[in-house]
Request: fold
Amino acid sequence: MLPLETRDLAQRLLASEASAGNPSHSTESAALRVYEKLRRNLCALAGVAGFRALAARALTLAKAEVPGLSVMQIMADGSMQGLGEMDPPGDKHPDGNGEVILIAELLGLLMIFIGRSMTLRLVQDAWPEADLENCNSGDGTRA
Amino acid sequence: MSTQDKVTIHKLPTGVPGLDDIVGGGLPEFSFNIIAGAPGSGKTTLAHQFVFANASPERPALYFTVLGESAIKMLRYQQQYTFFDPSKLPDSVRFINLSQIVLEKDLGAVLAEIIKEVEKSNPAVVVVDSFRTMVRKSHNGPSELDLQSFIQQLALFLASWQATTFLIGEYAEDELRDNPIFTVADGLFWLRQTAERNSIVRKLQIVKLRGQASVPGLHTFRITDGGLQAFSRTFGLSGHKRKDRGTHRLSIGIPALDRMMGGGIPEGDSVLVTGASGTGKSVLATQFIAEGIRQGEPGIVAVFEERPQAYTDRASKLGMDLVTPQEDGKLLILYLRPLDLSVDETMNEILEAVKKIGAKRLVIDSLAGFEMALSPGFREDFRESLYRMIFALTGIGVTILSTVEVDESFTEFPFSTYSISFLTDDIIRLRYVSIGGQLRKILVIIKMRGGSHSQDVREYEITSDGLVIASERLKGYERLISGIPDRVRPSDEKE
Reply:
């Protein structure tokens, strides 16, 4: 089960992208844009192979929670085929939709490996405008 | 060319305690350096320490990772060190992965990518970790000439962009010859890690450093929670002028012994107190340190064979209060007993203590315990290390009294099992003698480099006031130092 903080963070990023309101992105889902931004930054840090390995693990974990995500596939460059295209009825997770879960799992893995503080720094670097200061840490504290 | 015409090469802090002294004050700015060594020798950690010590948002550090340790795992592990400051990421310290380019393209593309990132960030520090994997990959494709050209261009470019560079690689020592990278490099840091019986011994060597004098030789280092800590062979005192020896003498706290030594121990001397177990070496040493405190001369006691509390308790039974001076910052009792110490680490602890309280007197009790506390690999060099230690400490005016146990023999009169008497200025020998069905104790000054001393063989006792020495030499016997003297007729005795 994902910690509340990770879901909260994923939702904030999706909300940030959704509210960005760039007309050229109108056909892309916010989830796709969040994933792509993370891919770009994390590939620079960990390499394509490093990012792809993390994303594959995140997808596997997310699929266990939202079976509808099984239509998604990770490509060689780490991009996610099918992301932004799914939203069939019945695949809604009680705690949020599948795309939030996928992003949250990816962020959760980062937190496991490099810690919360560094993960938030990397995320803040990709979304300088996003308000991550008051992210719920899940234990009642704030980031 | 006058000094003022010469270019000033700024020195950057290495971020590694002790290493600045070894490299001659800091690492030359804009230098192109190699950190070489086997896996696990601490190369990446050393580079990280340098990065975190020098990176700023205005002049960040770029850390290029290539096929080697995964960047995510590297961050996971490196952040455990206390020097790792997460707040510096990503503004001041940026990690960039080059694996894909190395795998898919040639060295030209790698160089182009490095140039692109450097031009974008204007870094003060650039690290490529591991450069070796990049070069290995290139051996399958480009010629050696291409490789040489790549290294040359990389070095030129990074120096022109005013970046101080570290290339990290798992090189073997026999690769030093014929490898173009070592020719181009301004600095070459070699880290070694060897197993000595049950201990690990880590050493570093500055094989090459252009532009300034580094301390030659192999220096011990340790990897702790704070990262690497280096211990210079010269204990960071290489640039210090030796203190002139004055005429001041230090009282031992035993008036008769002071008189035998011509008024006490000359300040800055190294004294060896040698004798069998139970002859009172530690008692004498404690009196020396207690007298120093009485005279306003702070002291350090390095103990290896008993704990500080036991040492203090024993002194108390002899009427010497070592508790109050410890509370007042006039005395430090160092207990140095891990079994894989290097002399240099021990020295570092002692030097820090000397600086901390401005110590004038040091007791090492005992050299045998000191040797046992060392890693087996360092025991071979014990004599040489001891020489460096004594030379360094007496050079800053500290008077050292060391105790050493010798096996009692009735056929010879050894001063020490270490053949170290040449390292000491003065030697006091304590020994048992068998007289009239009793095992009694005698004391003799073997040598004093600083001048004349008593030739007497004196009897002494260990009392509740410490060592009490007879005011006159022990008469009526000859061959006293054999331990089994012969009685002589009063008429045959020389005055």
About this structure: DSSP finds four helices and two strands in chain A.
